[in-house]
Amino acid sequence: MKALFIGGTGNISGACSLLALSMGTDLSILNRGQRSQSELSKATFIHADINKPQEVKALLKDEHFDVVVNFIAYTPAEIERDIQLFSDKCDQYIFISSASAYQKPPSHPVITESTPLVNPYWDYSRDKIACEDLLIKAHRENGFPVTIVRPSHTYETVIPVAIGSWEDFTIVERMRKGGTVIIHGDGTSLWTITHSHDFAKGFVGLMGNIQSIGHSFHITSDELLNWNQIYQALADAAGAELKAVHIATDFICREADKMGQHWMRGNLLGDKANSAIFDNTKIKRFVPGYVATIPFREGIKKTVQWFDAHPERIRIDEENNQLMDAILAAYTC
């Protein structure tokens, strides 16, 4: 199989690249070459900016791929660009959408691929929905060979909490220093976190799967945890005592607004404040044998170790600390 990944070295895409290569895929990765590529030495790297379509078109010339995957498309304009670029260059185009596009708050607790796509709280999610709409329209009208994949809170090289970190190490350092962290609500809403290597098993199974064209899939773990359990597992992985304060989501969002951190409304009300229980029947039907096998308690240990092994990866975002401190101060005053 001949594949082109746009991105290919990130938190989700890196694991997909590794698995695809291990299965013999002839993989080209188009990116700007800004991340380490040592583990992907078997791939062919095309250094270019996808946002410069004429440059990309010239580099690809007469190339044709069985699969093109864009891991870094977020807006309708980027999708319109990709439709023009790849309509005659691939047999399958896979778009990485987001499970945050599903209805918020959900009208039914179990999420399937037919759950409505409605998110009034988060522009990121609304943009992903608009991207999906364009792709489905192109598929219906012109046969554009799209497959849509919706990941949900997938981690390996990020810290998957609701407040305090993502690509940075802020919350782990805060825990290790004995600091207090914030858990939204009472911490008992249910959530699904998926390791990127588990996600990759389902994802690579869709590559070149002609029956998946025109379909959408979410690919998640079947492990359900509440937020108290998630933060406790992170504290244990960090070797720290969990010191947490539970604060109502609306209060957190109001205080974040005062600091200009308006994204928090989308992050919580548009996503993590809602329980997320996924029915993975569809991906298991299209990719027989798919199962997520990495429990969060084990996966997060490896993530913390990944950061600890290389001090240059450890970045502390003082804005995250300031945000948590301000919310805690307002709550306890």
What report would you give on this structure?
The protein has 333 residues and is an alpha/beta fold. The chain starts with a strand and ends with a helix. It contains twelve helices and 15 strands. It has two domains: 2-153 and 194-218, Rossmann fold (3-Layer(aba) Sandwich); 158-192 and 223-275 and 295-332, UDP-galactose 4-epimerase, domain 1. It has a seven-stranded parallel β-sheet with strand order 3-2-1-4-5-7-12, sandwiched between helices. The model has no long low-confidence stretch (mean pLDDT 96). It has helices at 13-22, 53-60, 76-86, 123-142, 170-176, 196-206, 227-238, 249-258, 263-272, 281-286, 296-308, 318-332; strands spanning 2-6, 26-31, 44-47, 67-70, 93-96, 110-111, 146-150, 154-155, 181-184, 190-191, 194-195, 216-218, 225-226, 244-247, 277-278. The longest helix has 20 residues, at 123-142.
Which key phrases capture this entry?
333 residues, Rossmann fold, 7-stranded parallel β-sheet, two-stranded parallel ribbon, globular
| Total beta strands | 15
Low-confidence stretches: none
Average pLDDT taken over every residue: 96
First and last CA, distance: 61 Å
What's the gist of this structure?
With 333 residues, this protein is of the alpha/beta class.
What does the secondary structure layout of this molecule look like, with pairings?
Layout: E1 2-6, H1 13-22, E2 26-31, E3 44-47, H2 53-60, E4 67-70, H3 76-86, E5 93-96, E6 110-111, H4 123-142, E7 146-150, E8 154-155, H5 170-176, E9 181-184, E10 190-191, E11 194-195, H6 196-206, E12 216-218, E13 225-226, H7 227-238, E14 244-247, H8 249-258, H9 263-272, E15 277-278, H10 281-286, H11 296-308, H12 318-332
Parallel strand pairs: 1-2, 1-4, 2-3, 4-5, 5-7, 6-15, 7-12, 8-11, 9-14
Antiparallel strand pairs: 10-13
Helix pairs in contact: 1-6, 3-4, 7-11, 8-9, 8-12
